[in-house]
Amino acid sequence: MAENKKKVLVIRLSSLGDVVLSTVVFRNIKEKYPDSYVCVLVKEEFVDVFKVNPYLDKIISFSKKDSLLAKIKQIRKERFDTVIDLHYNIRSNIITFFSGAKKTVRYNKDIFARRHLVYRKKLKKPIMHTVERYLEAISRVSVNGKHKNPQIFLTEKEIKGAKIKLKSVRSGLPQVLIGVNLGAKHKTKKWSSAKYKELIQKLLAKNYTPVLLGGEEDLKFSREVVFGFGPHTLHEIFNMVGKTDIRGLMAVIKTCKVLITPDTGAMHIAGALKVPVVALFGPTTLDLGFGPWGGEIR
Q: Which helix (H) or strand (E) holds 37?
């Protein structure tokens, strides 16, 4: 690699939704600096979000076994010119400070406005969407954020594999897959099992094919949701809960006509894949700046 290449590190360690939204910056950086060497630092469990991204040259993972000192040493060896901290917590601040980069920028979390909304139930000022704040951060290194949509890239093999798994045998009817995400990091964001059951019944009545999604931690809840459905009905539901990793989840969502989901990472995956989203908001609000990005919001 030529020594005169501009080297850029973007830091976004977690969580899934934030990591997905951070993908908005990479195309913009590469188009501004076509010969640049662009890396991302992310927790090991979210590396899959960035795989096969044509605007990234390297993914640096941060595993639970890694010490902060060892990671700083690894980053210093890369000799980055610019570090863009899109996480902005104590750990990312330390990494940024000791990175050795000549130029560093951090995105504005607007934390005080958010706290004011949460505790006072009032907005002091409109809170920018997270995507807008990421784009504002890169504007401070002279990158024009003309591409405003997060991007996830899948291989044809991954998409084909998901379609094979979800091939329907329902009476020869045209298959319309509707993703139904049962998972959410916080229980308060979830619908009740009765609500999900009612939703599935309505989808089946319209000859749609529900595709249930979630992680291994949602297996017990998924059993509550499908409890009471007869064998014939269960045959018409694709229950993918606990059966996919992040890449598999993204591929399955890509095959769906629509995704119905709580305010969680899957919502942002669908947005990045340009799959229409019906987002279920309860304890959270769009005013916090973390709602679905792009398209029409109702």
A: strand 37-43
Considering the domain architecture, whether residues 172 and 283 belong to the same structural domain is answered as yes
Domain boundary among 80, 106, 139: 139
pLDDT in tens, 13-49: 999 999 999 999 999 999 999 999 999 999 999 999 9
Question: The whole model's pTM is what?
Answer: 0.91
With vertex at residue 231, the alpha carbon angle to CA 229 and CA 236, rounded to the nearest 5 degrees, is 80
Please tell me whether residues 18 and 130 are part of one structural domain. yes
Instruction: Indicate which CATH number applies to the domain containing 34.
Output: 3.40.50.2000
Give residue 188's pLDDT band: very low, low, confident or very high (50, 70, 90): confident
Contact 269, 251 (CB under 8 A): no
The answer on 175 and 276 residing in a single domain is: yes
67 exposure class (CB count in 10 Å sphere: 0-12, 13-18, 19+): exposed
DSSP structural state of residue 287:
G
* pLDDT over 70, % of the chain: 86
Distance (Å, whole) CA 249 – CA 275 = 13
In this prediction, residues 134-138 reach a mean pLDDT of: 97
Residue 212 domain boundaries: 156-288
User: Residue 198 carries which side chain, given as an amino acid letter?
Assistant: E
Distance CA 252, CA 241 (A): 11
Question: Which of 27, 30, 31 has the alpha carbon at shortest distance from 7?
Answer: 30
In a domain, 149, yes or no: no
Q: Is residue 32 part of a domain?
A: yes
Which backbone phi and psi does 29 adopt, to 5 degrees?
Answer: -65, -45
**What whole-number distance in Å separates Cα of residue 36 and Cα of residue 250?**
28
